[in-house]
Amino acid sequence: MTDHAKDARAQDAPTDAAALARLPRRPEEPAAPVQSTAHTVRLKALNAFYGDTHAVKGVDLTYAANQVTAMIGPSGCGKSTLVRCINRMHEEVPGARAEGEVLLGETDLYGAGVDLTSVRRTIGMVFQKPNPFPTMSIFDNVAAGLRLSGTKRGDLKERVEWALRGAGLWEEVKDRLGSPGVGLSGGQQQRLCIARTIAVEPDVILMDEPCSALDPIATLRIEELIHELKQRFTIVIVTHNMQQAARVADTTAFMLAGELVEHAPTERIFTNPDDDRTEQYVTGKFG
To answer: Second label for 4, Cα 20 to 30 Å away, from 66, 120, 158, 267?
Structure first.
């Protein structure tokens, strides 16, 4: 399978176990642009299992730094499982396991001695359904990860403001930061979850169908936000929405029955794919 992100690899600064354990950096101003810390993610011979079920089959795939990669394919094809392998959430399912390599820069996230908490702080995840912490305020939802990371109390306010601005939510909530996060609309809750994710400055953001529960207006706002966030992060988005993939993704990967069929620039996937199965899927002939 052709690797469409090799050029990004040369620009990708190596990381190591110490880098995974780093604390979030404090920006000079809450609204100031942050230098990208994104890294390329490379999957090598990745296999995932649920007991005896072989859900992901020998996938080699590169996610380029500061790009959005869409994962598409019919339900049950393994795309969500593959994404959850990147930050090792797959292994939380009883009986599930993964084999192969997941490289963040030069660090194998499945290597000996890699701390799971650091992996999941470095590779954030936004889920299909907004999941703000139900007993926490808007402020505390965003600050939760920062507190776990050891951010000083005096720094929390500006870090929370920075993250809410980054998620395009600050102007809507700045006067009610003490209100419950679950009191926001669905689209606002999803942006709150994104703010919570970016507050600890991850290298990678994984999004598993982040707009499937949202109305068209909220979906558009999240898509606009994804365009902004890729300036700082590497983003992987799982979606069933072909139009969404075409709008937000730089490259698109098509999976079928646990296998990676094709990965290419998004325009080519939708206009001139190499594999007939890809064409059949994106034109609605199956799936």
So the answer is: 120
